[in-house]
């Protein structure tokens, strides 16, 4: 039994290392896209359109219907998709954490309003809410980031509210207020460090959902718009060529699956290491 547990633990560690390494490669490809990509994002080579992967050294992953290099578009798409996911995750965490602190500190009407907003957000199919926001505000990168922040804020708000209320229940936050320390300083200097590990776990677990949300919106044609490109955009354009040029959609689809799966595995690992029950 002990040997089986050790083998299982080693296998789990290898899986975590592989996931972390794969995510690092994706991040580096996105960061250094202008130097890694052999062609510009919209550079066309009509003489080589719909070239299969590995059919020539000029286009390793083939070309699309307009003769654009798939590898070049892939690294640029990784850059934008990960940037949007990170921005949406961070903004959602800031908004949710701030509202959670306010609800825990003031309670009453503020707390009831926050709970109602959280329940309202959780009760709606979010893709319908996202499409409604895009219909009113239009499609651009800023609106997409706001939608992604709205997608995750309720989780951080609920978590922060519950943990911050414990701080006020235990009495040390009230004692600090009695010493004249401002509420915002108590939240940032004393309460936030105690709940930071739970927030980090929540961010890592929420990140794959952000990538899938951006992919879904772009696949439906209401997300990232040309001339910009994301993984969802590549997937959406490639669906019309699945029978004739499968690589246009399959390659970004595989990258999406690997990125979200790797982040989920890494999120589970972080949860085991940071949360008290994991320790």
TrEMBL record:
PANTHER family: OLIGOPEPTIDE TRANSPORT SYSTEM PERMEASE PROTEIN APPC (PTHR43386), PEPTIDE ABC TRANSPORTER PERMEASE PROTEIN (PTHR43386:SF25). InterPro entries: BP-dependent_transpt_permease, MetI-like, MetI-like_sf, OppC_N. It is a multi-pass membrane protein. Belongs to the binding-protein-dependent transport system permease family. The chain crosses the membrane at residues 14-37, 82-104, 124-151, 199-224, 244-270. It comes from Parasutterella secunda. Pfam families: BPD_transp_1 (PF00528), OppC_N (PF12911). The keyword ATP-binding does not apply. Keywords: Cell membrane, Membrane, Transmembrane, Transmembrane helix, Transport. Gene3D superfamilies: MetI-like (1.10.3720.10). This is ABC transporter permease. The keyword Membrane applies. Residues 78-267 form the ABC transmembrane type-1 domain. It is found in: Cell membrane.
């Amino acid at each position: 039994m002990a040997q089986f547990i050790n083998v299982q633990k080693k296998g789990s560690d290898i899986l975590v290392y592989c996931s972390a390494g794969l995510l690092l490669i994706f991040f580096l490809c996105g960061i250094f896209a202008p130097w890694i990509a052999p062609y510009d994002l919209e550079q066309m080579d009509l003489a080589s359109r719909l070239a299969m992967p590995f059919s020539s050294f000029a286009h390793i992953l083939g070309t699309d219907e307009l003769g654009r290099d798939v590898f070049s578009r892939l690294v640029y798409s990784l850059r934008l998709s990960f940037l949007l996911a990170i921005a949406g995750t961070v903004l959602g965490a800031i908004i949710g954490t701030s509202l959670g602190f306010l609800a825990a500190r003031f309670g009453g009407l503020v707390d009831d309003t926050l709970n109602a907003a959280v329940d309202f957000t959780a009760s709606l199919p979010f893709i319908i809410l996202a499409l409604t926001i895009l219909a009113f505000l239009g499609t651009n990168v800023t609106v997409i980031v706001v939608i992604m922040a709205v997608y995750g804020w309720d989780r951080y708000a609920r978590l922060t509210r519950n943990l911050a209320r414990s701080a006020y229940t235990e009495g040390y936050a009230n004692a600090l207020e009695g010493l004249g320390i401002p509420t915002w300083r108590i939240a940032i200097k004393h309460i936030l460090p105690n709940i930071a590990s739970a927030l980090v776990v929540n961010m890592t677990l929420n990140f794959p959902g952000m990538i899938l949300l951006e992919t879904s919106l772009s696949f439906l044609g209401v997300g990232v718009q040309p001339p910009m490109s994301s993984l969802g955009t590549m997937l959406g354009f490639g669906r019309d060529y699945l029978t004739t040029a499968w690589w246009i959609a399959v390659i970004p689809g595989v990258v999406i699956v690997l990125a979200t799966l790797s982040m989920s595995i890494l999120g589970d690992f972080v949860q085991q290491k940071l949360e008290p029950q994991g320790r």
